[in-house]
Hints:
Chain A folds into 3 domains: 13-58, Orthogonal Bundle (434 Repressor (Amino-terminal Domain)), CATH 1.10.260; 72-169 and 301-325, 3-Layer(aba) Sandwich (Rossmann fold), CATH 3.40.50.2300; 172-298, Response regulator (Rossmann fold), CATH 3.40.50.2300. Helices cover 44% and strands 17% of the residues of chain A. Chain A has helices at residues 13-20, 24-31, 41-54, 60-67, 84-99, 114-123, 139-147, 171-184, 201-217, 231-239, 241-244, 254-266, 284-288, 303-316, and strands spanning 72-76, 103-107, 128-131, 152-157, 165-168, 189-195, 221-227, 248-250, 276-280, 294-299, 326-330. Chain A binds a DNA duplex through helix 2 and helix 4.
Amino acid sequence: MGKERTAPAAVTSADVARLAGVSRATVSFVLNNTQAHRVSDTTRARVLAAADQLGYVPHAAARSLRAGRSNLVLMPASVSAVGRLVSTWIDDLQGELEQLGYITVLHAGRFPNAVSAARAWAELRPAAVVALEGDSLTGQAADVLTKAGVRGVLAFASRRAEGIHTIDFDHTRVGALAAEHLVSRGRRNLGVIMPQERGLDTFARPRLAGAQSVASRTTASVTPVEMAYTRGSAAELAERWPELGLDAVFAYNDEYAALLLHALRDAGVRVPEEVSVVGCDDLLVSALQQPPLTTVRLDMPAPAQVADALHELVERGVPPEVPGMEPVLVQRQSS
Amino acid sequence: MGKERTAPAAVTSADVARLAGVSRATVSFVLNNTQAHRVSDTTRARVLAAADQLGYVPHAAARSLRAGRSNLVLMPASVSAVGRLVSTWIDDLQGELEQLGYITVLHAGRFPNAVSAARAWAELRPAAVVALEGDSLTGQAADVLTKAGVRGVLAFASRRAEGIHTIDFDHTRVGALAAEHLVSRGRRNLGVIMPQERGLDTFARPRLAGAQSVASRTTASVTPVEMAYTRGSAAELAERWPELGLDAVFAYNDEYAALLLHALRDAGVRVPEEVSVVGCDDLLVSALQQPPLTTVRLDMPAPAQVADALHELVERGVPPEVPGMEPVLVQRQSS
DNA sequence: CCGGGTCGGTAACGCGTGTAACCTGGAAGT
DNA sequence: ACTTCCAGGTTACACGCGTTACCGACCCGG
């Protein structure tokens, strides 16, 4: 006794074989109904009964170790960093991949650099890695993955790197689109909100760069403005708004925009008369604001299309032909 | 040639051994710096150099197959179903678990029932399964997991089942708290929003039940009201609000509450004069509404504490001693 | 009575690891 | 000079699985 607590002794296919009175091979044939080998109906029934009785579940790791390939798709992403927009998209993609036989898994981890992150992912030997924050994936990191046998390295990114299959996801264009709109509305001193939350700067920086590139072609100027997703930070920012001298702002998000909108109102700054506000993601909340928020909608490629492309990439090494993310301006009353 | 595309041939510890001119065992000793065995500094250096040169990364599956234990923690949860409140909590928990040597992974999957879900999870042979929607985990499903060798089956749930270690997460109390508040404000005809989005009813149902239990002790009545998270659904609901005869509503969420709030205003229903509205989660948006939303804040147990408890459970089978979720009413002007 | 074919089953190997057990040569102790 | 010991290495096995090759029994035609 006393042993009951230490090792519950997971049930293996050998246990099933023993109970059914057959060899382990037969068990394998039955449970995978291998077409290459015939097995009598009576023993098949015995095996199935034994497996059911013992509650046998195959060991995925052992299986893919033997097979030399796994059906795991790893998506490095922290839950809190993805907005509502992408989160539903992720869910749909995961559903599509499931139908293709893949098991999609999310992993958020804080890593000092891209290579050590890739190392951690590579340990799991996934069939593919789908990086949503693809710009943080270096060619060197991708090399680690491919050397570990990862078949599909797919990244949503603005710039393409060696050994990485890229789906266009250029947040530069998002910032540029917002800036162009604001300039066309006669604004000249544009602020761009840079969120302080961890993980968000991967998107925020290119957006800022996009806005700046527009400014460099016009008479407008662009100023990065730091802000955290708290009432205090927003209020503090609104308080010193006059001294910033901005007549427009591109908030990172509709949620940041909404927060800032309220803070500005509380501070007596009128929107859109004194300052135009543009959000992003076209979340439901944006239309509910007072005034309703102008925002940038991000049209994502169809999940089914991405899933198919990934499958082709893993199976046959075919590079994906998928349209990228398309930013679309949705104008409302806040600008 | 032509072979380059088919099998990139993942690098193994045998490759490292070959390049370093030593046996595979020595490589293992060096890379894990096994204390039980000594190895000279020169060969150690050679091995490390070879591993680095080849970009070797150990195969987690093979490792845990051999070790008989894995460091994987599986959290079944769909990204879109978790609100902002829990998502940051999940991130923190994942961080704590990482420090304890675990790799936390999220998996969303649509399964016909709890047992088939458990079967899918069991295939991965995780060290532990942490179910946030713990009420959907049956004793039979937990049995599948333990039989597959999963050491820690941890569930945030209201009712405890056989073989499942439970951290109290009783959404009944959430509904009850909201209902008690509304009754104390003189309301009698309470509506409870039931969101139509998939995966959300696991929380919505017990909250409804909690509200109903309060009603059964008083003269108040409770009516479930279906609503989807779209403007159309909210508008349609607000349109037929008068005929529902409700003077209070507990929305599933602050986001649902905000959506409903706007729809009600557009339909000419005054809040809180004609109807009280109570949200949930105490999200930032709730305080920004007009009028500011009364809401129920959910105090979660400290992630570090949960991580430690899980570690103890996996390592020594010690049942977790962790305070559960505590609902707290945050009163504002909407009720 | 014998050769060939089919059906139904088993033995054995390898996937990539970690580790217990086993060698070997040289230094130290007797 | 013979044993003892240890540092520093290797060989061999097991983890759970899928699959290839093999084997016995039976049936059938010649």
